[in-house]
Amino acid sequence: MDQTLINWLALILTGAMSWFLKSLWQSNNRLKNAFHSIELMMAIEYVTQADLARNNNHINKKLIQILETLEAKADKA
Question: What residue spans define the domains of the chain?
Fold first, then answer.
């Protein structure tokens, strides 16, 4: 009688542990898939060389305009 009770308790305990570990495993796989999709999105959204050059040219033109304006104001003073 005692051994049968121990066997049933062990069965219930291992079943509960198996269910818990399975749920952890599935959650881990979902997180891996989500992380992988984020990595792919990041790789797609990288700035290309052409975009970077175009933005740098635009910024450089604005900086030159600011510098010329400051030099013109310095000449007046």
Answer: 1-46, 48-77
